[in-house]
Amino acid sequence: MSQLFMFEKPLGMRDTLPELYEAKSQVQDAIESEMKLWGYQFMDTPALEYYDTVGTASAILDQQLFKLLDNQGHTLVLRPEMTTPIARVAASKLLQENLPLRLAYSASVFRAQQREGGRPAEFEQIGVEAIADESVSADGEVIALMVSALREAGIKSFQISVGHIAFVQELFLQILGTEERAQALTKFLYEKNFVGYREHVKSLNLSSIDKQRLLDFLKLRGGEEVIERALCLIENEKGREAIQKLKQLWDIVVDYGEQANLKLDLTLVSHMSYYTGILFEVYADKVGFPIGNGGRYNLLLEKFGKTTGATGFALRLDRILEALGELKKEVTTECVLFSGERRKEAFQLAKAKRGQGIKTLLQDIQGVRNIDEFTGQFAEVTFLIGKAGKGS
């Protein structure tokens, strides 16, 4: 093992300097306020969970989990996402009467990276979970809330791609016959390797009609017209039911007036294996990865002893900041610059300003080498220098 440099950080970990921290706080506050307006209650869970509970139930790959042992020999993990810990809490403490729950969170999650490649191993998610509500209205609500939250954060241009994992599964099983063959083809969708998908389909031992159906499947992207085209491709009842739910969802989003941001993409699949129905990703300009994703997970809570459906979404704060670009820096802090003779007066003045809600910094002049450079960073500077009552 090579010697670590003095300032080296673990792979994928980053420092957050004051300017970025302030920008992140502003975005976070705007999103949290919007979620609260929609009736969602914030909660938190431990950063450390047991591997045998949250670790195994999570949809994150095992090799991406940060693992450690406690002093009793139990394997722990740093939480890799927030949906599974919240499902644990909801099943054990909050669902006693099986009433719908609207929960929200803002927390750091941890996923180990094989190679950093610019990707963080720790990042912040902010999201919601609508639990014990199996209606399509709940799916529509979380999508509409996500749209509203992104606008409040300052994101002007974005698109939400919506699909249904059950439609993909049923279509592939119907044509290919086995789970193994269906999963092999699904992998191309997850990797968004559509060239590889087409080549794989051409190599399959299928009729020309079935091959064409699998190739036509890639065209199921667009507006409401996609629904009719999908119904023409699928023959079994479960697959048709999935499409009908997407039709209901589209109508609900239309009622919210947010269909301009929505695109149906029935080729959409996710690495989050617990999704069972409607799922979605949101993309913004200038960012090459989704800034958020979500969907319905009707089986996850069964792992914690409760049989009920749920849906939700998570937004990536770091990617939202990337989409926003360079934020306009507002200089709002004032400064009271003082000499030793007027220290008490300076303390009292700063206290009074803070009492009025004004951000105020105190600075002894003896600690400043370049007065002009120092004072240039404040909205206003009050000089209390020299004898009391003779500020200059």
Automatic annotation (TrEMBL):
Listed GO MF terms: catalytic activity, acting on a protein; glycosyltransferase activity; histidine-tRNA ligase activity
Any one GO cellular component localisation term in the record: cytoplasm
Pathway named in the protein's UniProt entry: Amino-acid biosynthesis; L-histidine biosynthesis; L-histidine from 5-phospho-alpha-D-ribose 1-diphosphate: step 1/9
Residues engaged in binding L-histidine: 81-83, 111, 125, 129, 274-275
Keyword Glycosyltransferase part of the UniProt annotation: yes
The keyword Electron transport belongs to this UniProt entry's keyword annotation: no
Keywords annotated in UniProt: Amino-acid biosynthesis, Cytoplasm, Glycosyltransferase, Histidine biosynthesis, Transferase
Gene Ontology terms describing biological process: histidyl-tRNA aminoacylation; L-histidine biosynthetic process
Principal subcellular localization: cytoplasm
Localization: Cytoplasm
Role, per record: Required for the first step of histidine biosynthesis. May allow the feedback regulation of ATP phosphoribosyltransferase activity by histidine.
UniProt subunit comment: Heteromultimer composed of HisG and HisZ subunits.
Extra information: This function is generally fulfilled by the C-terminal part of HisG, which is missing in some bacteria such as this one.
Name of the molecule in the record: ATP phosphoribosyltransferase regulatory subunit
